[in-house]
């Protein structure tokens, strides 16, 4: 049995859909049922139920976006930085291997030579640099807390999108925001992300940190062009003149926009679709809410 934490959330729901499609036995544990954020409760549960693998898709994101984390710092720090450490302790005590959903939003920009950040590059959008949102700072701390933990995958998801209209879906966001920020990003097709991360366990690739983004990079203008070509939304998309204007008008805290390199995962034999192709495919099978 696979134990899923946070399975009722946006990312967790995609894991549930994957397991149901593949006929994999899993259990979605909810805090309301068993308070898995309480260390002794989680350890006891793991020792009793003995899942073969645990996926931590629980965390604090802020809704509708990370701006909300600036107002809920205690929950954000606990959910993203303290809680992963508690899961690590419980899994180590019970001898359960596991995977943690982290975020690529602990980077900004690209490498000095223009290439994407690899897993060996230190995050540069963190409390250490004092340039980040509270959310990104806590996600980077969560990775710090897990440094050296045994038998854990750290999977970096970035700005998820798929074919289903949803306020959390990047494509929906771009269609609904009154004005857009021009940026270059590596992003993750949500269903490819959950399939690729579970494949890490199924194929028993080495534990460690993996960037799980669709290969390549895409600009906001390119995504908008794909949306318009698809016919899903033909509105006249408006852009901010600069990041300063975006920060002044639409955001409370800086956003991570960054390019990531997913070659480590590919070298382990797990591949995702090239990013423009994946966006076009999502738009081709677009499902309205
Ligand atoms: N959505 C995104 O854009 C991205 C998300 N991520 C990461 O993926 C993980 C899941 O995100 P997402 O699915 O969007 O989040 P959601 O808010 O949709 O779901 C998170 C789930 O986590 C559980 N949970 C446990 N502790 C907390 C807490 N302190 N605060 C809030 N929820 C908690 C809840 O489940 P219950 O109460 O039922 O147990 C909740 O349903 C997070 O770690 C996030 O940082 C990474 C990159 C991008
Ligand atoms: C608010 C806003 C954002 N944007 C841009 C900024 C950025 O490039 C992109 C996403 O910004 P948002 O504010 O929607 O999303 P944000 O909350 O920053 O999204 C993040 O959520 C957390 C949970 C993560 O871990 C990230 O990977 C990412 O998905 O949209 C606009 O173009 N216009 C807007 O009005």
From TrEMBL:
Gene3D superfamilies, from UniProt? NAD(P)-binding Rossmann-like Domain
Domain named RmlD-like substrate binding: which ranges? 2-285
Q: In which pathway does it act?
A: Carbohydrate biosynthesis; dTDP-L-rhamnose biosynthesis
Q: What GO biological process term is on the record, naming one?
A: S-adenosylmethionine biosynthetic process
| Alphabetical list of PANTHER family matching this protein | DTDP-4-DEHYDRORHAMNOSE REDUCTASE, METHIONINE ADENOSYLTRANSFERASE 2 SUBUNIT BETA
The organism of origin for this protein: Horticoccus luteus
Q: Which InterPro entries match?
A: dTDP_dehydrorham_reduct (IPR005913), NAD(P)-bd_dom_sf (IPR036291), RmlD-like-bd (IPR029903)
Task: State the source organism's domain of life.
Answer: Bacteria
Record's signal peptide: none
Q: Which GO terms describe its cellular component?
A: methionine adenosyltransferase complex
Keywords (A to Z) from UniProt: NADP, Oxidoreductase
Family named by the database record: Belongs to the dTDP-4-dehydrorhamnose reductase family.
User: Can you name one GO molecular function term for this protein?
Assistant: methionine adenosyltransferase regulator activity
* EC number of the protein: 1.1.1.133
Q: What does this protein do?
A: Catalyzes the reduction of dTDP-6-deoxy-L-lyxo-4-hexulose to yield dTDP-L-rhamnose.
Reactions this protein catalyses = dTDP-beta-L-rhamnose + NADP(+) = dTDP-4-dehydro-beta-L-rhamnose + NADPH + H(+)
- Its recorded name reads dTDP-4-dehydrorhamnose reductase
């Amino acid at each position: 049995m696979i134990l899923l934490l946070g399975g009722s959330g946006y990312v967790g729901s995609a894991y549930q859909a994957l397991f149901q499609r593949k006929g994999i036995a899993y259990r979605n544990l909810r805090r309301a049922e068993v308070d898995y954020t309480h260390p002794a409760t989680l350890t006891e549960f793991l020792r009793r139920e003995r899942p073969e693998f645990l996926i931590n898709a629980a965390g604090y994101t802020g809704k509708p976006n990370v701006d909300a984390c600036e107002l809920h710092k205690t929950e954000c720090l606990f959910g993203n930085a303290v809680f992963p450490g508690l899961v690590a302790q419980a899994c180590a005590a019970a001898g359960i291997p596991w995977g943690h959903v982290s975020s690529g939003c602990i980077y900004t920009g690209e490498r000095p030579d223009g290439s994407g950040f690899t897993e060996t590059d230190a995050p540069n959008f963190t409390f250490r640099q004092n340039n980040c949102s509270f959310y990104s700072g806590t996600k980077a701390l969560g990775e710090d807390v897990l440094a050296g933990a045994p038998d854990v995958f750290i999977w970096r998801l970035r700005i998820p999108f798929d074919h289903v209209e949803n306020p959390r879906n990047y494509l929906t966001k771009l269609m609904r925001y009154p004005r857009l920020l021009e940026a270059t990003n590596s992003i993750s097709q949500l269903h490819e992300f959950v399939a690729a991360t579970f494949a890490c366990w199924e194929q028993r690739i080495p534990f460690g940190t993996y960037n799980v983004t669709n290969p390549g990079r895409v600009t906001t203008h390119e995504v908008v062009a794909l949306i318009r070509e698809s016919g899903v939304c033909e509105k006249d998309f408006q852009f901010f003149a600069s990041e300063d204007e975006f920060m002044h008008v639409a955001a409370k805290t800086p956003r991570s926009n960054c390019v990531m390199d997913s070659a480590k995962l590919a070298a382990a034999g797990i591949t995702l679709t090239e990013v423009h192709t994946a966006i076009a495919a999502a738009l081709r099978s677009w499902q309205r809410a």
